[in-house]
Design brief:
- The complex is a heterodimer of chains A (about 350) and B (about 270).
- The radius of gyration of chain A is 25 Å and the shape is globular.
- Chain A has about 350 residues and is α/β, with parallel strands linked by helices.
- In chain A, helix 4 (about 130-140) packs parallel to helix 6 (about 175-185) and helix 9 (about 255-265) crosses helix 11.
- Chain A has helices at about 35-45, 80-85, 110, 130-140, 145-160, 175-185, 205-220, 230-240, 255-265, 305-315, 330-340, and strands at about 20-30, 50-60, 65-70, 95-100, 115-120, 190-195, 225-230, 240-245, 250-255, 265-275, 285-290, 295-300, 320-325.
- Helix content of chain A is about 35%, strand content about 25%.
- The longest helix of chain A has 18 residues, at about 205-220.
- Chain B is an all-alpha fold.
- Chain B has 14 helices and no strands.
- In chain B, helix 2 packs parallel to helix 8 (about 120-140) and helix 3 packs across helix 9 (about 150-175).
- Chain B is globular and about 55 Å long.
- Chain B starts with a helix and ends in a 6-residue tail after the last helix.
- Classes of the chains: A alpha/beta (about 350), B mainly alpha (about 270).
- The interface of A and B includes residues 112 and 142 of A.
């Protein structure tokens, strides 16, 4: 048996810095209704309460200063976890500590030490320039004038948004607005940051800016970050460690590369020909993932790579050949699928 | 004690900041402000027509003269302005349904404070508070009530109690969103109850007065300040006026806590 994730702190240990989650469970109640009027009438008198378990005994730890990616399909429990750790939701059972605080107790001191950034939520006053919302946060977080000036100056420079500070938020592009959201969230210099889909809806330039900014902020401030995203690039670029959650279960805890090595026993041969090769002639070599007359991408078993290359050279006039790992998305998708079937790879 | 003072100062400072930003937002779109004022003035004209009928006919409402009625109608219009002003309270249902309390919950300080005093509507409040204040002053003058510190103190005390009731009742009505998904019926019912204060409570039969005083004490919002100053309330009623405000505030606070426990955000 292989253990992918090594937990550093066993049961009973509470980290004063960083994040500790133990056996976190969250249920949501709902009612079901069959189609049609008959069941509507029936539901007037009696409704059977159903429980959906969004989180199932979730446990993990994140050390101070770590940037951890949180992956999972829709409805896996990523946002629920982040909302519990931010104190927005109460868990049904289990324990959690963020920098030593129980999040759902919502203590003022705790709230001053973390930030929650959600790509689809805004804290800015839309009819006013962002700088007015920043000033409000200065009051709320009781930031001194000197610290406010210094932090704002640094964040504005990191993002390069000086020229947009005095522009109404509603007039900003989505990317510019997201940068302003980040600045508003980080003005009080949080030690822990929860990022829920921080780059959603942004173009790739804005995405790169946000990622670079988060890396810089982490390096300069040693902030602990938990990032959820459907965009694997966010996780690949930002996080050394990735947790994968599926149906409320933690199914993996380790590096992204490791996921690929576990699930992908395949390689992609990218071949360029000196003269056109018909698609039909390549079928016997492997699964054709991509084909054009002068080039092709062929998926083959890891063990058959060398032999297939020899066969290709023997059969065709090969101009160039490259070997790539199978796309990470495919491995992640397989992890999701197997997670849905109840496998727990983080605990193998 | 020092900590409490620090906290109090924080709440005042943040509330003032919220007020400034609300006003600044309004000033960014002056036409919206003007149209809001116009809408409220149109509604107010209807209220003033009732008053005009009373004034021109010289009719009495119960034992109240038409001059006294001016003060009661003024208080009602003023309180309507207060209700309109608290857009943070009135926007709770929408915020809850859309899951927009999330970010607010992560901010230091009381969530109830941040939500209910987080936004103000100056456009809808301005005409009501201005005209209401003018009518209260005019009614006071016509009734020849001496402007002593004692009289003004009592009037302001029950006006403040009315403001607390306006806040608490409005909050409780809005908080029902945690238990029912559509608040249309509740909002309509609450607005209808509110309009019972269009005229002094003496206009209504005794059974309605009893219900509006003890069961659903909506009459206390706008009647008690005027009746206290005119010496129409006995000691028990004076105490009841303050007690109901305190109880309603406590109840709204309990209801807030119970509601927030049911908050599941938008896609939790």
């Amino acid at each position: 048996m292989m253990r992918i994730a090594l937990l550093h702190c066993k049961m009973g240990c509470i980290l004063m810095e960083g994040i500790v989650v133990k056996n976190l469970t969250r249920d949501f109640a709902y009612y079901e209704k069959e189609a049609g009027m008959k069941s509507s009438v029936k539901n007037l008198f009696h409704r059977t309460k159903q429980i959906r378990r969004a989180l199932k005994d979730l446990s993990f730890e994140i050390q101070k200063g770590e940037m951890v990616g949180f992956l999972g399909p829709n409805g896996a429990g990523k946002t629920t976890t982040i909302k519990i750790l931010s104190g927005i939701l109460h868990p049904t059972s289990g324990e959690a500590r963020v920098n030593g605080y129980v999040p759902w107790e919502r203590k003022k001191e705790f709230k001053k030490r973390f930030a929650y950034v959600a790509g689809q939520k805004s804290q800015l006053w839309i009819n006013l320039p962002a700088v007015d919302s920043f000033a409000l946060n200065k009051s709320i977080y009781e930031i001194s004038d000197a610290q406010y000036r210094q932090t704002l100056g640094e964040l504005v420079e990191l993002f390069g948004v000086q020229e947009f500070l005095k522009v109404q938020v509603r007039r900003l592009s989505l990317g510019e607005r997201m940068k302003m959201e980040m600045i508003a969230a980080l003005l009080h210099r949080p030690e822990v940051i929860f990022l829920d889909e921080p780059t959603i809806g942004l173009d790739f330039i804005a995405q790169n800016n946000i990622r670079q900014f988060l890396k810089d902020y982490n390096r300069q401030n040693g902030a602990t970050m938990l990032v959820t995203s459907h965009d694997l690039k966010d996780i690949e670029e930002l996080c050394q460690r990735t947790m994968v959650i599926s149906h409320g279960d933690l199914v993996y805890d380790g590096t992204l590369e490791h996921i690929r090595s576990i699930f992908s026993k395949k390689r992609i041969l990218n071949v360029q020909w000196n003269s056109p090769v018909p698609r039909a002639d390549l079928v016997s070599f492997g699964t054709i993932k991509n084909w054009e007359p002068m080039k092709a991408a062929i998926e083959v078993d890891d063990a058959a790579v060398t032999q297939t290359i020899h066969r290709l050279f023997a059969a065709f006039s090969v101009g160039d050949i490259g070997i790539d790992a199978a796309p990470l998305e495919e491995s992640i998708a397989r992890l999701y699928e197997q997670g849905a079937q109840g496998a727990e790879y983080g605990k193998i | 004690m020092k900590e409490r003072m620090h906290e109090l100062k924080w709440y005042v400072r943040v509330a003032v900041h919220f007020g400034k930003l609300s006003l600044q937002s309004t000033m960014e779109y002056p036409l919206n402000f003007v149209s809001g004022v116009c809408v409220e003035l149109a509604y107010m004209m209807i209220k003033l027509v009732y008053l005009y009928v009373v004034m021109s006919s010289g009719m009495k409402v119960g034992s109240l003269t038409s001059d006294m009625v001016i003060m009661f109608v003024g208080t009602y219009i003023f309180m309507t302005g207060v209700w309109m002003f608290l857009s943070g309270v009135n926007s709770i249902p929408e915020q809850v349904i859309k899951g927009d309390l999330d970010l607010l919950m992560t901010k230091p300080g009381s969530l109830q404070f941040l939500q209910t005093f987080g936004k103000y509507n100056f456009a809808l409040a301005f005409p009501n508070v201005t005209v209401g204040t003018m009518l209260m002053a005019e009614g006071w003058k016509r009734c020849a009530i001496p402007a002593t510190i004692g009289h003004i103190g009592v009037f302001v005390l029950y006006l403040a109690a009315g403001i607390v009731l306006t806040y608490s009742f409005g909050l409780m009505a809005a908080l029902l969103v945690f238990w029912v998904t559509s608040l249309h019926a509740v909002s309509t019912l609450y607005a209808a109850l509110w309009d019972y204060n269009n005229m002094p409570m003496e206009l209504y039969p005794k059974v309605i007065r009893q219900i509006g005083t003890f069961l659903i004490p909506i009459f206390l919002v706008t009647n008690w300040s005027g009746m206290a100053i005119l010496g129409r309330l006995d000691l028990l009623q004076l105490i009841w006026g303050i007690a109901v405000s305190v109880l309603a505030f406590i109840l709204s606070r309990l209801m807030w806590n119970a509601g927030i426990r049911r908050y599941t955000s938008a896609n939790g």
